[in-house]
Amino acid sequence: MAPGVFLPDIDAGEATTPRAFRAIIAGGGVAGLVLANAFERGGVDYVLLERRNEVAANAGASICMVPNGCRILDQLGFYEAFCNSTVPVRVFLDRDSNGNLMGPGSDISQMGRARTGYELSFGDRQALLQIMYDGIEDKKKILRNKKVVDVVHSDNGVTVKCEDGTTYQGDVLLGADGVYSKTRQALWDLAASEHPEQVKRDRNALVAEYQCLFGTCSKVDGLDIGDAEYGYGQGRSSLVATCKEGRTYYFIFQKMDTTYRGTSFPHYSKKDAEEFAKAHFDMKIRPNVTFEALWKNTLGSNLVVLEEGTFDLWTYGRIACVGDSVHKMTPNVGYGGNTAIESAAALASVVKELVDKANGGHLTESQIKEYFSSYQKARKHRADGIVKRAGDVTRLQALQKAAFMRHIIGHLGDFLPNRQAEMVVDSLPITFLPIPRRSVMGTMPYNPAQGENHVESKLKRLALALPFLLLSVLAAKLMAPDPLIPWATSILQSKKLPWTDEPLPTTFYNIQWLDNLLAPVIVFFSPVLLDIEGVSQQALHFLVDFGVVLAIWLIESTRRANNFTLSQLPLLFALSSQFIGVAVISPIYYLLHYINAPIANFKASDMRLTRVAYTKSILPATILTYYIPLYLSFFAPSFTDRVSWNFLWQIYPVFLSPLASYVFFRLFPDTTKSDRLNNVKSDLSAIRFTVGILSAHSALLWLYTFAKSNFSLGALAEVVLPPLHSPQDAPDLVTFAGEFLRFDEAFLFGNTFLWLAYLFWDIKHAGMLSMGWGRILGYAVLALVALGPGATVGLGFLWREELLATRRHWAAMTEEKALEWNRKLGVEWDEGEKKTDGKKVDWKK
Fold it and tell me: Where do transmembrane segments lie in this chain (predicted)?
């Protein structure tokens, strides 16, 4: 049996000695020892009262450390020691009730390290407590066998009475004494007269729907070191993590027949635990490993109910609670201990501010209440969200939504690491201790302005983007194809065009419905293919420029930040544009893209990343399926050949998708899985090359036309500016086609420039670009005149790409900010400390 953390006895008589400021900590668990270590480093006088003879008995308890908790351990100097006591999680696996894999494993731990500098690790809770206790220099401040039985609150301070008859006086009482907190009870009693409804709610805030047998066992054959495995079952589930030397931590969850509420919950004996274990011997951890094998090797275990909930009142007067005494969650996501650590860090920071404000003098209760209120405000929303998230996962794994999990689990991709990012990014450090260099070298800087509690409303973004919807409606009205119908019907019936003696081919694919669908479109394009009244040049400019937009849509479709959005279906929008008009469809695309693409999506640099192999395939696939058929539609020797190529071009999205996905994609290695960890800028060269080549192509055509028109801006304006009259007023098909295409181009690029303006507004609002709008507009106008609309859009998109790849949000804790933070504390990083910069790094020496 591993030894507990034994604490020395201390004479309590000194409790009455006058002190300038003293904090009393009730509870010597994870949160309490974080407070104690932080206070010692911050010069805050304190005393810690632990009710047990040892900080942690060997009850089989474990802890999963995730990035928000790891950063605080790193600030306190304990991270490396904890890492040395265990091994990081290699992979998370989801298994069904037969132990079979439900999908590919998740490398969420490696993602955590790449993004934040910290991996996910399971370890002994007892070992972590020992490490933190060993970190205390003045161990006389840690008192054991001090069970709190009464709290006396006054205007001048707080007095704590213990079961052994000793009393302790201080300025504040900090309750880190767990889910059945005596401190919280005292807080309720004091607050009941002033906040009766909140106290009443809090007394019934906890709910228990599940029970859990947790424990630690020695090595079990069939389990692999570094694997963490979730088992899904009807009404029950499991979590098993195998760590250093095969030491395994297990959690067996069971939905209870009764749901308990309030403060009265069942307590279980060792016999109850044994009977519970035997009832679950058949649970399959893997196809060839049952829970019985783990139980036979168990070193320590405990059966408990899983209380869930957060309280409304975290503080009152000179009392503040922290950890499980204010937020209790199920352990399925491993955030319980880390949330307690983060709350302790936030509370320690507030208390340090109090001490600094007192400057050796006395603080009034109103001053303390103000600071304690800021502590709750900083933590309450985050804690609420994490408690809810943990409960949701518990229920999903117990298959209360069985059909959903069975069908979706194998297709989530990086959904879980991204959810973790939302839960981690806005976590709080200890504000008076240095920022570890490791924590600012990842691809996702900590940011108090992002995360689950700072999500920008999609309704707000929809409201802001309503001009796109209005533009789509306006385009649909001005460019309705009604005038085309009688002209196309007459021509198709006679199979003869009024501008040539050559017959009009009306079939190509020999698929009746498809040929019938495309024939009216071919009639519309016939003046272009014959270059009647000069409409060919105008159409070629427009469609060549649209190729740049198409490439941008394709790039956005494979961007990680756009997963599970309609931006992943650009060819649906492109195909619709062929029949309805890109003027009508493009604003719908931009509306949907803008709603789902706030700048917060790029909090982690890997979310900007596109799938490199696909991005490399865009240029050759687009040339073959879009540009070559387009040019042959204009320049093939005979009208019949031009019509044939136009038949092909009209449904280019149908050919582009398989060519890009299944032909060229296979020619390039797909390195996305490693790139998102080690090289988040790996796609930039492909994006620059693709958009650069197509933009240069558009610019050359623009310059050629400019030169051909004897450098007349008026001639160029006629190519891109809409006519004064709607196509609806056109007297014939040729005029209709010319005006329709000019409107189509003007609307497309008006929509696209507006979309880019929205995206740049987001970037400027995030502090990633300080350039003024006048200068940005000036550059845009200059590029538009010199290079044309297609190239201007391409350059604008590439500029945005560079900003996303190289700039950080104004509130992000960057390396520069951390250096300044540490300099104010008189601390410099060691030269030997490592950094990532998106490169693969092993933090362990």
Answer: 567-592, 613-635, 647-665, 686-707, 776-799
